[in-house]
């Protein structure tokens, strides 16, 4: 398909809105004339660099987010389950190890990045299980179809400077495009990058790149 628009998706599995945006873009990657590129990045780093704070830190916003994510999950047909306890889980867990694991997979076996990322979200946001401990990361990897051998190899890579640096670089790239949260979607169209923040701006993305929006669950 000629002249495909490169669309970069900067995301972190700690972010439920990133899951919504990820699933919609995965559905559209064969409908729209786009080259979808997964860019695993670290939300903690973006928050720190921009002075942003998680929505749950503001009580009114946290109240709204509980309703919003439930409505979005239903409309987008993504099995996010959110409760008040999740806000503490997010603050207590951190996603650095998970995002390094996805980064290492991207560097060695990029074809596994889509199912692997999805399994991290499912484990954290549907099953309410831990994603920070090595044994849980290995469970996620097996669920995503990585062999035990490969999972172990990738796990050993997460402490390497190469993987740490790659995750830092990807996060810095998101910041360079103007990201202040996740998901951050960057469409390279007409020779310039266009940043869209959030999972509810994909209709607008379509409009900018001249593609037809067919709702979050195109048939």
TrEMBL record:
Superkingdom to which the source organism belongs: Eukaryota
Keyword list (alphabetical) reads: Transferase
| SUPFAM superfamilies on file | Thioredoxin-like (SSF52833)
Indicate yes or no for the key word Transferase. Answer: yes
Residues forming the DSBA-like thioredoxin domain are 6-208
A GO BP entry is: glutathione metabolic process
Recorded hits in CDD domains, A to Z, give:
DsbA_GSTK
Where is the catalytic site? 15 (nucleophile)
Give the catalytic activity: RX + glutathione = an S-substituted glutathione + a halide anion + H(+)
Against InterPro entries, the record matches this protein to: DSBA-like_thioredoxin_dom, GST_Kappa/NadH, GSTK, HCCAis_GSTk, Thioredoxin-like_sf
Which residues does UniProt assign to the signal peptide? none
One Pfam family in the UniProt entry: DSBA
One Gene Ontology term of the molecular function aspect: glutathione peroxidase activity
Question: Which Gene Ontology terms of cellular component type are present?
Answer: mitochondrion; peroxisome
Enzyme's top EC category: transferase
Q: Does the keyword Signal apply?
A: no
Write down the EC number.
2.5.1.18
**Which protein family is it in?**
Belongs to the GST superfamily. Kappa family.
Q: What is this protein called?
A: Glutathione S-transferase kappa 1
């Amino acid at each position: 398909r000629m002249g495909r628009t490169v669309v970069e998706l900067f995301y972190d599995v700690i972010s439920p809105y990133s899951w919504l945006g990820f699933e919609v873009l995965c559905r559209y990657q064969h409908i729209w004339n786009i080259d979808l590129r997964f860019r695993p990045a670290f939300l903690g780093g973006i928050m720190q660099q921009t002075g942003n704070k998680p929505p749950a830190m503001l009580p009114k916003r946290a109240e709204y987010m509980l309703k919003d994510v439930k409505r979005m999950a239903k409309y987008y047909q993504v099995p996010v389950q959110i409760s008040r306890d999740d806000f503490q889980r997010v603050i207590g867990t951190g996603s650095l190890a998970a995002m390094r694991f996805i980064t290492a997979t991207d560097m060695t076996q990029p074809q596994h990045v889509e199912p692997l990322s999805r399994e991290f979200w499912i484990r954290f946001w549907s099953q309410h299980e831990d994603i920070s401990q090595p044994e849980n990361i290995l469970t996620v990897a097996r669920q995503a179809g990585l062999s035990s051998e490969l999972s172990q190899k990738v796990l050993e890579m997460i402490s390497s400077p190469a993987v740490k640096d790659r995750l830092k670089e990807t996060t810095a790239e998101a910041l360079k495009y103007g990201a202040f949260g996740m998901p951050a979607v960057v469409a390279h169209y007409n020779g310039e990058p266009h940043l869209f923040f959030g999972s509810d701006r994909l209709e607008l993305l379509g409009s900018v790149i001249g593609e037809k929006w067919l709702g979050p669950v195109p048939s």
